[in-house]
Amino acid sequence: MNIKRRLLLAAFALSSALPTYAHAEGLIAIITPSHDNPFFKAEAVGAEARAKELGYETLVLVHDDDPNKQSEMFDTAIARGAAAIILDNAGADATVAPVQRAKDAGIPSFLIDREIKESGIAVSQIVSNNYQGAQLGAEEFVKLMGEAGPYVELLGREADTNAGIRSSGYHDIIDQYPDLEMVAQQSANWSQTEAYEKMETILQANPNIKGVISGNDTMAMGAWAALEAAGRTDVIVVGFDGSNDVRDSIMKDGIKATVLQPAYRQAQFAVEQADQYIKTGSTGQPEKQLMDCVLITAENAEKLETFALSN
Amino acid sequence: MHAMKLSAALLALLLPLGGCKLVPTDKPAAETAEARTDEARMAAYADENWSEKVLPVIAEHTVDYAKLRQALAASVESAGDEYGLRPEGEANPWNFVVSGEGQVTEAKLDSRAAKMQVDMNGDGKPDVTLQIGPIIRGTALRDAMPFIVFTDFRDQIEFAKLARAMNEKAHAELDVPEGDVVGKTVAFTGVFTLRSVDEQPEIVPTAIEVKP
């Protein structure tokens, strides 16, 4: 063990033993799905940065969409006496119990991105206006398709409310155009590799497709890779999230559009509400809040960086 | 001894409560509500609240279209503060209830998403779109209602169905014009969401009248 490492360990021991001295405001636990998806990474980074600016110590954890793991992380946060929990949850039903447990222990939870099935347990639930965003994406999709042609929809994970809401936003627009025909609708569970495989199969059965509308950007990336591999870069692909990967694809005239969820700002806003709640007992906001999404096309893609749009 | 008697008495009082299940009186209604689809429940909600709650909000907040444009040109925020409605939260766009009169420049009335373009300032060019429906885009009508709070609804899916149900109710209450309306004068009251000052408002009308 070298000196540097030993010093680091000593510093770490000191900071965890004496959190109140090092960080006057206490501990904020930040729990999200896997950082493999840059969307969740942006949330964690955004929340952590804001928490540190406001003087908090942070504990960043990843539940990998496993409710059991999430439950253990809540126990950890409770045991560490966290001042607040920032959470992008592992299931609308399964998350009710741990959030209640934290509440009973006097620890307020602030949810981002995904809702839970009950209100009155978390202090805040701040979600993207997925319905509004999906309608934006669908309008652009319809325009790109010239209001006609066979298309495919890739759905997200069924247990996630966001999968259903985006699909219904898409269809409330697309179904107005009788010449747009959905030839396949399949779930690829938000996954890039699954979307790649599904797209390969769909393409074999429906070689005439003209467009793909996807419930998120990672699936859009998977679909696009499969289309590229099949030499079908003429197919119009529209995603949802506003990831840097899709931004780069749009700028290279690959994927045509996506919808930005302000994930970075959303996470920071949750921390600000936690801070205000800790200090005053109120966030000054209703529990459930929607944040509008923004359409990203070749026109504004260059302004997009890590789930935030610069002016 | 005294204390024991007292606690025994308390226990006797509490026991029957522990033994039986308290059934809220509204349970049967709640159960039937659960059994219905989101669409049906939200359509019923829109129906029930239309005359008593929605129309009064519309009446109270209606501003003349030309007057609003002037206020918006000066400052969106002060126009919003004075005339606008929006849910609490960060960066939610303003919704406005407007009334006005203009000349129809273009109409597509045979569509499921029927629309009219209306020239409001006499230059011959369309300034606003009236969404006649039955398919009406957006959530302006829902988001303009101060009594509708997202927290009171199960999730985004139910809340989206509510927006759609409100739009459908607005359509159902309209006197939908027929025949060739281009060139005619139309008077309307309706709600729109302001996303940018330069964007042509897509108004959800709650009343329209095509003048002969």
UniProtKB/TrEMBL annotation, chain A:
Gene3D superfamilies linked: 3.40.50.2300
Record-level Gene Ontology MF annotations: carbohydrate binding
Superkingdom of the source species: Bacteria
Alphabetically ordered keywords of this record: Signal
SUPFAM superfamilies in the cross-refs: Periplasmic binding protein-like I
Leader sequence residues: 1-24
Keyword presence, Electron transport: no
InterPro entries assigned: Peripla_BP_I, SBP_2_dom
Keyword Signal included in the entry's annotation: yes
Pfam families: Peripla_BP_4
PANTHER family: D-ALLOSE-BINDING PERIPLASMIC PROTEIN-RELATED
Record-stated family: Belongs to the bacterial solute-binding protein 2 family.
Record protein name field: D-ribose ABC transporter substrate-binding protein
Source organism (scientific name): Pseudohoeflea suaedae
TrEMBL record, chain B:
Pfam families, A to Z: DUF2291 (PF10054)
Cited InterPro entries: TM0957-like_sf, UCP033535_lipo
Chain segments annotated as coiled-coil in the UniProt record: none
Signal peptide positions on this chain: 1-21
Superkingdom in the source lineage: Bacteria
Keyword NAD: no
Name this protein carries in UniProt: DUF2291 domain-containing protein
